[in-house]
Design brief:
Elements lengths: L1 H23 L34 H4 L32 E6 L4 E13 L2 E12 L8 E13 L11 E14 L9 E15 L5 E14 L4 E15 L4 E5 L1
Length: 249
């Protein structure tokens, strides 16, 4: 009987402590039942956006487009209508001298001189050489002179504006012996020259023309021989709105 009373007392004490713990730390009460279910949700698929092709070199790089603000306009003058000025360059040299020498050539020289003026240019030149004999009677010397004059008609002229007139000529002598012939001591001098007159009218939009008169001549001193060859050449063209006519000679 005593043991039964002790067990009942312990049961009552433990129940009191358990209720006290529930009051201090209330637990989460679960429901008596749980509702479960199944639902199908369908999501409409969409096409993926494709990215644009990015080339290494774009068309804009090959064909750039500039705005009008980026392009500055500039007046381009007509060089034909501008006044000719041959003195506007600081690097214009009026003369040149070239001298050479070698084992058998002593000396060889070339000198030129140019003089510009308001409406044209004048120049002269001289070329000479002396070659020693490398075998008997094989010596030779030569001398050549040149001269030229260019005259430009101003574009404000009333007669043939913008035309050009050119006069030039040259003459040279080569003196040598016939060292490989049966008469090696005979010296021969061969003269060769030419003179030319040229006229150019090429700035007109309707008609252009050019003509050249040229004479080539040669002579030998040891024999009675001389020759002249006269040449005429030219061209002309007439340009109209619907057709053009041209002549070459």
């Amino acid at each position: 009987m005593k043991k039964i009373l002790i067990l009942c007392g312990m049961f009552l004490i433990s129940t009191a402590f358990a209720q006290d713990d529930k009051q201090k730390n209330p637990g989460v009460e679960l429901p008596d039942f749980v509702i479960t279910g199944k639902e199908n949700i369908s999501i409409q698929s969409s096409n993926k956006i494709k990215p644009d092709f990015v080339p290494i070199i774009s068309e804009e790089f090959i064909k750039p487009v500039f705005s009008p603000e980026q392009l500055e306009t500039k007046d381009i003058g007509n060089p034909v209508k501008e006044d000719l000025n041959l003195f506007d360059s600081l690097n214009f040299y009026k003369g040149r001298l070239k001298v050479g020498a070698g084992l058998y050539t002593l000396p060889e020289a070339q000198v030129t001189f140019s003089e510009p003026f308001k409406s044209g240019l004048f120049n002269v030149g001289l070329i000479g050489f002396n070659r020693r004999a490398y075998v008997d009677n094989s010596d030779r010397y030569g001398l050549t002179g040149t001269a030229a004059l260019k005259y430009f008609v101003g574009d404000d002229s009333k007669f043939l504006p913008g035309s050009e007139i050119k006069i030039d000529g040259s003459y040279g002598i080569n003196s040598y012996k016939l060292f490989a012939s049966n008469f090696p001591n005979i010296r021969r001098s061969f003269g060769l020259g030419n003179a030319a007159l040229q006229f150019n009218y090429l700035t007109n939009k309707v008609i252009v023309a050019a003509v050249k008169l040229e004479d080539e001549f040669a002579s030998l001193n040891d024999v009675t021989f001389s020759e002249n060859v006269f040449k005429i050449s030219g061209m002309s063209r007439l340009q109209l709105s619907n057709f053009a006519i041209g002549v070459n000679a």
